[in-house]
Design a protein that fits this description.
Low-confidence stretches: 4-10, 16-31, 188-196, 198-205
Strand order of the largest sheet: 1-4-5-6-7-8-9-12
Radius of gyration: 21 Å
Oligomer: single chain
Mean pLDDT: 80
Number of helices: 1
């Protein structure tokens, strides 16, 4: 299910990006196509479970909220800075080795704060004076902060895919609706190869955390 959603968002982004430079339907109050917008938003993330090196974690579904600052150029490319927060309940099933054959396992449930700090780019395709479709990707970090005192905060590199629609009420006010998929990267590695045919450098990573949800917000354009 998540893989199909990811492929759908990527396909939508590529299609929108390819045609974004061909269509411009509206301008802001100054007559320029460049726009700066601010979008406070709220939304919802579905429940997620994932494995770690020492067990597994289950995060309950719950609401999210945040703020996005967007800059749209006259060729319908949008750059954005986004902060998103969720406070949910998480249960960790943890085990560790206490001796040669002794394994100690315990469960711990705690409130968990999840803060995303992202930088992204969207391709935008206006379909009329009122409606614009968009899709894009972001990268940044996520900070997992357990409220339990005996657990430390965890910081991970994160990528995100999103697509959505903008509804322009007037030149200064609009509505943004956006499904999105956040992918915190649990592990990353690099490799270097040097041989008679040349050299190469590679970077790899994997993620078992997939936070899927959607947001909606009121966009203020200056």
């Amino acid at each position: 299910m998540i893989r199909k959603i990811t492929l759908f968002i990527i396909a939508g982004f590529l299609s929108i990006s390819a045609s974004a430079k061909k269509d411009v339907y509206y301008t802001n109050a100054s007559g320029s196509d460049d726009k700066i917008s601010l979008t406070p938003f709220t939304g919802f993330n579905f429940a997620e479970s994932f494995d770690t090196d020492f067990g597994s974690v289950y995060m309950e579904q719950g609401p999210v909220y945040g703020l996005s600052l967007e800059y749209q150029t006259n060729d319908n490319i949008e750059y954005e800075l986004t902060w998103q927060k969720q406070v949910t309940r998480a249960t960790a099933n943890v085990y560790y080795y206490a001796g040669y054959n002794d394994i100690i396992q315990f469960n711990k449930t705690s409130d968990l704060a999840i803060d995303y700090f992202m930088v992204g780019m969207n391709g935008i395709k206006p379909t009329s004076d009122l409606i614009s479709l968009y899709g894009g990707a972001s990268a940044g970090i996520v900070v997992f902060t357990p409220r339990a005192t005996n657990f430390d905060a965890v910081v991970k590199f994160t990528v995100a895919l999103k697509a959505g629609v903008k509804i322009n009420i007037n030149e200064h006010l609009g509505i943004r609706l956006q499904p999105q998929l956040y992918l915190p990267i649990q592990s990353m590695g690099a490799n270097v190869f040097v041989g008679s045919q040349g050299s190469s450098v590679g970077l790899s990573g994997y993620s078992t955390i997939t936070q899927f949800g959607g947001i909606g917000g009121l966009t203020l354009t200056f």
